């Protein structure tokens, strides 16, 4: 109750009116539902399925939590369906995770309710529940569009993440089938619950002796957590009787340090050679590291030669960096030679351990984390990183009281699982979400780490992710695959081999085979690289047909990976083909010779059979060997299937090499692949699907009538042909999805809105619109001043095509990329582009209309940097057009450079040449004058901006905004490429040109994204609430003369006398000149190259603004535009379209319009892409 009272007090100031009543009602409902649940449990009563689902939604607390999170936002009752979907997702996920425990306790749980409802086993009920959860996630994603839904998604995702990370419901606990089932059906049902609602496979790593001993030793030295110390000691004592020689040594050293201090080195010297030497490559458990560990556990002596040499941070892994620093610090402390380690090394170790807080353990590794903390304790025992690390490590302790090697391997496991799931009917529905998760978590360097939140990427995880994405949806994830391909090709060694971690490391057989498999779908582009890699694999084979076992224990694992790689790429060389055939024969012969009488294989020929070794041998023989041997192996596997449908096996992965570590789900995944390769049927198609009662999905809205489709438009056929999403009026998400940024057009109701998954979906939509004669509107950011990015037919929203790739002097953006996203991606690569100032505006729309920005005078227009555009034209063709393309594509590219979006086709991707910003600094500035100085500021700024002496490094604008009855200051704001000290002499010249005392001057150094976006600047767009607005524009072709300045100042002064509140009006004059004028007027379709500025007259209001006040604002816009026409002449900015403008052809396009018409006639003769101010094929008036 104290916590609730504290929460009540903390939310007092931030909450909107009425929030407390809403929270009170929701929390009271939760409390009532919890009491009902307790009463039912006490009475031994069971609910029917529908009643249970309704009650469970109320007992999960998601709705009260959402009320707290959303307390500062408008209520948005229309999102209640989305909130309920979030509650269901969290509740059902929790039920799936806790079901084994709760079923044993006799507690009511969704799995038990389903088992009772359908009269089926818990295993089948759990699989059914997982299917329900997948559909509910789909409901949520279809409905969750727009910024307002973001807090709900965050609560959903945060709750799911918490459930993954808590130990309250350990993963891996299975459900008994209750039936005599074997094979793929039972295994598939078992695996459905291994994938969480987000598509992530995050099995729990088994406990190990090494990490448990190191943590126990550290806790003892630090004198904390006696309860955890006892748990760890119990674990070690339980492990001792069956421990390997290495583990036995570590246990004895930890539990009996006094006796072992002198004996440990001698016992270590007698260990098998594989422990001290390991295998080639980084990550081996070298003798020096073993002696360091023994010293930490029992205080055994360290010799002078045990200290590794210092290494720099470049060209090594994050793990090696910490390992070497830790070993050097520990050795120096043990030998009493603190001077042997520099202060910089100690500081670096502290700095490294302070990073990586996106995971419970540092870089997901308990080993590395513990070694680093042991080292820190020798020189900074009171360091915060030590206390924090101990807490994290104690939180990582498993239910069996031991410490795992890793706290996650989720990305690697998800990729391996996704590849195994592909083609299995019962599991395939989960694959798209798994693939999307994998693609989304790609690292900036193009690779993948093995766990979410890590910095260090690796070849193994990257190749697994690439294999999966190629199998799942290669076109949808083409951007991720492109980046990953670049990562792999960059890390390859000169001998054709691939290392595990960083370029220059010793190449690894497993990594090289994986790289071949990952690059095989693009073999034609990488023939030389793959030929070298194949040769490396062939050269790595031993005479007995085996291969080096680097990161695995079993022979069959290395053979499977290598043989699959050898047959993944077509080879033209007869000699190479012969070598591959011979190598395959040797490996098959080895497997046939080492198959045990029980049909299985051991990790080594003399080891007993186990599931993982057998499962990895089966695919090789199924593809290249003896079917009888395969049959025997399958018989072995099925005989060892657990009651829950899964499989159990000794671990096969190792790390640090050669210490094994266990992720139990791997036995299930490899067995699934083995059974599938043996053609064992999954027979899921023969079962009758179960129709489940339950709450209506979030995507349904029975209260909204279905609007009839236009005659001849087969919307279900379009939806069936799309990989992405098609929203129709009957779906709840439609109402939010149809809205633009501008509230003026809220009354327009499209027949459908399409969110394409890839360019092929765009082709489907274009072809559909053409053949069905349905009006087509294109939308990227939804900022169209005139509302032309919506309509009454099909809206094609390319916002879903939002991939971004920057590097090597170029940037490739999907047409859905927004300004803020683009600038962040650019900044991360040390690059820049003039892509508009608004963080939410679509980059495509900005570029196609020319593209003003915070860097216009220095870098020119956005379209000036465009190098290639991918566009789907009206005939359904995907064209990639450049300036040097053959006709008519070269003309089309010219038209796309400033001729306005939506005219010639649906642009899907843009490639730009970027600017190098690595040596640039940026300063934002604002200078304002008294309200009486408007005319002087307009005149002085206009002259200063047009003066050739004003450097291009200054890009600025005049702006003046006035609400009803409130005078405003004339202001110049802008961005300077340089420091404030270098800027102020330039601003002094501006002040001199104005000739009036300044009211204020501000200058602020900033980074590139803030300089580029200017999200808090009026006229630049924000992330805030939607408004209604209207605008008109003129082109300023020369500095404003006295008469123009007087009329404009008078018009602005008239704004002060407008009554009414709830909005504002004013003008914005963006500077041109500089680099814009370096090209002639016909170099691109943007015709205003010689101009010095673009003036936009704005007015905006809110939905509650009085209608009469709106009309006064619109009248002011018309008046000021008419007043300025004689001074400025016809002209307007195509990215600020004015639907009232009659001579728009000349205003927007000038003398370039006839050529634009010819381009239109060539690429869209039937004018499929049209709107009231679209370029036409015909002469106006005909």
From TrEMBL:
<dbReference type="Pfam" id="PF19086">
    <property type="entry name" value="Terpene_syn_C_2"/>
</dbReference>
<dbReference type="InterPro" id="IPR016166">
    <property type="entry name" value="FAD-bd_PCMH"/>
</dbReference>
<dbReference type="GO" id="GO:0071949">
    <property type="term" value="F:FAD binding"/>
</dbReference>
<dbReference type="InterPro" id="IPR036318">
    <property type="entry name" value="FAD-bd_PCMH-like_sf"/>
</dbReference>
<dbReference type="InterPro" id="IPR008930">
    <property type="entry name" value="Terpenoid_cyclase/PrenylTrfase"/>
</dbReference>
<dbReference type="InterPro" id="IPR016169">
    <property type="entry name" value="FAD-bd_PCMH_sub2"/>
</dbReference>
<protein>
    <submittedName>
        <fullName>FAD-binding protein</fullName>
    </submittedName>
</protein>
<dbReference type="InterPro" id="IPR006093">
    <property type="entry name" value="Oxy_OxRdtase_FAD_BS"/>
</dbReference>
<dbReference type="InterPro" id="IPR016167">
    <property type="entry name" value="FAD-bd_PCMH_sub1"/>
</dbReference>
<keyword id="KW-0274">FAD</keyword>
<keyword id="KW-0285">Flavoprotein</keyword>
<dbReference type="Pfam" id="PF01565">
    <property type="entry name" value="FAD_binding_4"/>
</dbReference>
<dbReference type="InterPro" id="IPR006094">
    <property type="entry name" value="Oxid_FAD_bind_N"/>
</dbReference>
<dbReference type="GO" id="GO:0016491">
    <property type="term" value="F:oxidoreductase activity"/>
</dbReference>
<comment type="similarity">
    <text>Belongs to the oxygen-dependent FAD-linked oxidoreductase family.</text>
</comment>
<feature type="domain" description="FAD-binding PCMH-type">
    <location>
        <begin position="745"/>
        <end position="917"/>
    </location>
</feature>
<dbReference type="InterPro" id="IPR008949">
    <property type="entry name" value="Isoprenoid_synthase_dom_sf"/>
</dbReference>
<dbReference type="Pfam" id="PF08031">
    <property type="entry name" value="BBE"/>
</dbReference>
<dbReference type="InterPro" id="IPR050416">
    <property type="entry name" value="FAD-linked_Oxidoreductase"/>
</dbReference>
<dbReference type="InterPro" id="IPR012951">
    <property type="entry name" value="BBE"/>
</dbReference>
<feature type="region of interest" description="Disordered">
    <location>
        <begin position="678"/>
        <end position="712"/>
    </location>
</feature>
<keyword id="KW-0560">Oxidoreductase</keyword>
